[in-house]
Design a protein that fits this description.
Elements: H1 11-14, H2 16-29, E1 37-42, H3 47-50, H4 53-62, E2 67-70, H5 95-98, H6 101-113, E3 117-120, E4 139-141, E5 147-149, H7 163-177, E6 181-187, H8 209-217, H9 222-236, H10 241-245, H11 254-261, H12 267-292, E7 297-302, H13 308-311, H14 315-318, E8 324-329, H15 339-353, H16 359-370, H17 380-384, E9 397-398, H18 406-424, E10 433-434, E11 440-441, H19 445-457, E12 462-466, H20 479-487
Parallel strand pairs: 1-2, 1-12, 2-3, 3-6, 6-7, 7-8, 8-10, 9-11, 10-12
Antiparallel strand pairs: 4-5
Length: 493
């Protein structure tokens, strides 16, 4: 198959027939492949420099895309009237972003006129767009058992009373300026699921005043929750091999396994509080959005089923409060959020805390906790081969490292997708985020291909592709986008 590259992208200009032949070759290769509905997520507004609205529409139509989400901050000035019920006021975006309003308006109108639905991700409140002292920060239980404030991108606690009014005001702003929008994608909220000290998404959150108030509202003893979290941290730093070996053959996993492994039944209560807290938030957000416009849709992002019990997500229970779900099909090694990277960070941290435990025992512990086993991984070295040593701990992007085995996609990816579909109960309501990387080793096109194939075989009907759309607007067969073209449910020609 001929690939259009930066060196030969002038082929399109020189020969429309040859360019069409390339696309036709892709179509022929994909004829016998089960198709999947592709949504696309565009992270920022640099696409406006790469495409005019007609070119972008052409790009979407190549893959049969009928739903597009935009993650950039909207180029609008907040309306003071919309923030009357919010103690926190939204600041104006930068002049550079404001200057894009006409281009964004033209793009949105063009997409809607051609039957493409538009969703917004950029309305999600972020610590980067507000003063940290304007809302209550998350607080975490540190390794010395002291309660300390969180910092960074997700530092604001969603249980602060000001959070939902602020969020809904920004949604009202969006609808008033861009009525073409069909819905919103909510990333989280979630409690953390990582234990590496200093790493984002800390498991031992949140113990601030807002969560204390929320615990009381929900009927939980907050001091008991703190004591339970402290006990969990202490026990994770003093694990013993013999008691763990006695649990590995039992048909249990997740929080139930964790509770037995550390001999602390109240752990279940702590995670139940997280589930109830998240449910309250999603319910309030959904009700607020429907009040603005009952036709607007709410999509809720979550982690993979392996991690959702730790983050406070019960997809079956949340089904009544959201129109669809976007569990994150994130698998990379290193960086942030990827499945391999999360397992590795847990394993290394537990080894630091428990130097007498073997790597094999630690991995067995994690496989029971997360409900899956990585194929052919029984030592840390086996995991480290999947990323170049230079990038193992710095969270930068890289392509260097050995690809994941095919068995990983056949077993783990298939299992995780089946679980999310079962938990939600309706495949039409599951549209996972699918992304090659957030730092660490990016998945290759071949791995993305294997992941989508496994997800389809598990029953997935729709996914949201968070990709680069190709490195050049004429490179329609470039890496990640070629995968979309292969699998997408394109209209018959």
């Amino acid at each position: 198959m001929l690939i259009v590259t930066k060196k030969n992208n002038n082929l399109r200009k020189k020969s429309g027939c040859l360019y069409n032949a390339i696309i036709k070759t892709q179509d022929n290769l994909a004829m016998n492949i089960t198709k999947i509905n592709t949504w696309v997520m565009v992270n920022n507004w640099n696409i406006l420099d790469r495409y005019d609205s007609s070119e972008f529409l052409d790009k979407m139509e190549q893959a049969g895309v009928k739903h597009v989400a935009f993650g950039g901050r909207l180029p609008i000035k907040p309306s003071s009237q919309n923030y009357e019920n919010s103690l926190v006021k939204r600041e104006n975006p930068s002049p550079e972003i404001l200057s894009l309003k006409n281009k964004v308006k033209k793009l949105f109108s063009h997409l809607k006129n051609h039957g493409i639905k538009i969703y917004l991700y950029g309305t999600n409140p972020r610590s980067s767009e507000m003063q940290l002292n304007s809302m209550t920060q998350k607080h975490y239980l540190d390794i010395d058992l002291a309660i300390k404030p969180s910092e960074g991108y997700w530092a604001i606690c969603s249980n602060t009373p000001e959070f939902i009014p602020y969020y809904l005001a920004s949604i009202q702003d969006a609808i008033e300026n861009f009525p073409e929008v069909s819905g919103f994608l909510n990333d989280g909220p979630e409690f953390g699921y990582e234990i590496k000290p200093g790493f984002m998404s800390n498991l031992f959150t949140c113990f601030g005043s807002c969560c204390e108030k929320k615990a009381k509202e929900l009927g939980y003893d907050f001091n008991s929750l703190k004591q339970t979290a402290a006990q969990l941290r202490r026990k994770l730093m003093s694990l013993k091999e013999a008691p763990l070996n006695n649990l590995f053959d039992r048909e249990i996993e997740g929080v139930e396994f964790l509770s037995l492994a550390i001999k602390e039944p109240k752990v279940n209560e702590w995670f139940n509080f997280k589930k109830d807290s998240v449910a309250e938030y999603i319910k309030a957000l959904n009700q607020g959005i429907k009040t603005i416009d009952n036709s607007l849709e709410l999509g809720v992002g979550s982690r993979l089923p392996a991690f959702t019990p730790l983050t406070g997500y019960d997809l079956q229970n949340l089904n009544q409060h959201a129109d669809f779900f976007l569990p994150k099909l994130y698998f990379w090694m290193g960086g942030y959020d990827g499945l391999y990277g999360t397992v590795y960070r847990w394993a290394k941290t537990l080894k630091d805390w428990n130097p007498n435990l073997s790597e094999k025992i630690i991995l067995q512990f994690l496989y029971k906790l997360f409900g899956f086993a990585l194929p052919n991984i029984n030592s840390f070295k086996n995991m480290e081969k999947h990323i170049d040593p230079l990038f193992l701990n710095n969270n930068k992007n890289t392509w260097l490292g050995e690809a994941f085995p095919k068995e990983f996609f056949k077993r783990v990816v298939t299992s995780e997708v089946k679980k999310m579909l079962q938990q939600v109960g309706n495949s039409k309501h599951v549209r996972p985020w699918f992304n090659p990387v957030h730092g660490g080793r990016s998945l290759t096109p071949q791995e993305l291909d294997l992941a989508l194939e496994a997800a389809k075989k598990a029953g997935l009907k729709t996914y949201l592709y968070y990709c680069s759309l190709g490195s050049n607007k004429f490179t329609t067969t470039d890496g990640e986008w070629e995968v979309a073209l292969k699998h997408s449910n394109k209209p018959a020609k």
